[in-house]
Design goal:
The protein is an alpha+beta fold. It has seven helices and 13 strands. Strands 7, 8, 9, 10, 11, 12 and 13 form a seven-stranded mixed β-sheet that branches. Strands 1, 2, 3, 4, 5 and 6 form a six-stranded antiparallel β-sheet that branches. Helix 1 packs antiparallel against helix 3, helix 4 runs antiparallel to helix 5 and helix 6 runs antiparallel to helix 7.
């Protein structure tokens, strides 16, 4: 089943269950109320008969003395003496007798009032039997009174109520199920559009396309925005990949072309020291470029760094001067950070001027290692951390990947690399704050 059908089915099932419980509960509640009302009336009528027996026992046998009505139905009253002989009864009984032996026995022998289910021919009755006072000279003194009311009206009322509630419940369930289906379809319609849009993008392979975002502020709109942000990120990644492949092809083509030319020259003219030196330099450059490409590819594919606690002062090598402002420790991969520092120092040598200084310290919960030369730094217009980016004042040839590798290493460790003038700062979260000041060495 589709999600829409499952949600609609679940909502419908919940509604039907609630309706079924309503169909059961309402008639049961009504039955209890009606029976309670009947029993209260029986008790009151029995009390009236008991008072009449106590105050004017001779009137028990008078015509109409025991008559009563309950909602249009007759109340049946039957008075018996201590031996169980009928002394008086209401006219509605005619020649019939209220049958409730257990309740009658409790009233006569145990002198306890109680309710019981009785019968009057085919009619079901609710019977209340109560003992009568023993004082007085009437025939019923020390006997009991039985007051009964027919359950037929209650059953009729309950039967009509059950049919009415069941019909209303059925209509309500059908309406609720239809409404649940409509609302579910409307609620999931944006998801359907998202699915169709995603399938279209998967078919075309064009990550520049975007999914339709509903004009709401609910979870579906949030999901659409998240997916579009993901597509935008994928688009940037694909553009960067295409640019990287193009730049790598260009960078690899240059040394390979030179190597082929030199090889052709040697084939025609024989070995020449200058040509051999050029071949050696080209091979070295090609090896350096491939090494940097592999390093960058490993950083791109690697999982977030785990590493070990390493004091950054142990990585401060290769500079003319090292300054330890404060001993700091970070959770890093030593080999990766050694390469990052080496790349920063090499970059300062190629692009900077004067002495190269490494400063180690920490601030605001971050440990840092700063590499700085005495030059003005790179122009602000150069995207120095982009791949294959090279400044115009570089001393010697390079791959243009050194700073890109530094950035990738820093980000994989949850850190960052920034530049301010000629100072390149590699920052990562600090683990310890042990303070140790050292003179420049």
């Amino acid at each position: 089943m589709s999600l829409q059908r499952r949600v609609a089915a679940a909502a419908t099932a919940a509604i039907v269950l609630a309706v079924v419980l309503l169909v059961i509960a309402v008639p049961k509640f009504l039955e209890n109320e009606l029976e309670g009302t009947l029993e209260d009336t029986l008790v009151r009528r029995a009390a009236d008969v008991a008072r009449l027996n106590a105050t004017a026992p001779d009137q028990l046998t008078a015509p109409g003395a025991l008559e009563g009505a309950l909602a249009g139905s007759a109340l049946y009253v039957q008075v018996i003496d201590p031996s169980g002989r009928i002394v008086a009864r209401s006219s509605g009984l005619g020649g019939r007798v209220i049958e409730a032996e257990d309740a009658t026995e409790r009233a006569l022998r145990g002198r306890q009032a109680s309710f019981a289910d009785g019968s009057l021919g085919p009619d079901a009755l609710r019977v209340y039997a109560a003992p009568l006072g023993e004082l007085g000279e009437g025939e019923a003194s020390g006997g009991a009174v039985l007051v009964a009311g027919s359950l037929a009206d209650i059953e009729d009322t309950l039967s009509h109520t059950r049919r009415l509630v069941a019909l209303c419940a059925l209509i309500a369930a059908l309406l609720a199920a239809s409404l649940a289906t409509i609302l579910t379809r409307r609620a999931l319609r944006p998801l359907t559009r998202l699915s169709s849009g995603a399938q279209a993008i998967a078919t075309s392979g064009d990550v520049a396309e975007r999914l339709p975002e509903p004009p709401t502020h609910d979870e579906v709109a949030e999901l659409a925005g998240t997916l579009n942000a993901m597509l935008e990120s994928l688009e940037r990644a694909r553009e960067a990949e295409h640019r990287f492949v193009g730049d790598a092809s260009h960078e690899l083509r240059t040394p390979l072309t030179a190597l082929r030319g030199n090889a052709a020259y040697i084939a025609r003219h024989g070995a020449d020291p200058a040509v051999l030196a050029d071949i050696e330099a080209g091979a070295e450059r090609l090896s350096e470029l491939l090494d940097d490409l592999l390093a960058l590819a490993r950083e791109d594919a690697a999982a977030p760094a785990q590493g070990e606690p390493v004091a950054l002062s142990e990585l401060a090598r290769g500079a003319d001067e090292v300054i330890i402002e404060r001993e700091v420790t970070a959770q890093i991969e030593r080999a990766a950070f050694e390469r990052a520092v080496e790349n920063l120092v090499r970059n300062a040598r190629k692009h900077g001027t004067g002495r190269v200084t490494i400063t180690v310290g920490g601030a605001g919960g971050e440990a840092f290692l700063r590499v700085q030369d005495e030059g003005p730094g790179p122009p602000e217009t150069v995207a120095i951390f982009e791949r294959f980016a090279r400044g115009t004042n570089a001393h010697g040839e390079g791959s243009g990947l050194g700073l890109a590798i530094v950035k990738a290493i820093a980000e994989r460790h949850g850190g960052r690399v920034t530049v301010d003038g000629s100072a390149f700062t590699l920052s990562v979260r600090e683990l310890s704050n042990s303070v140790r000041t050292s003179a420049p060495r």
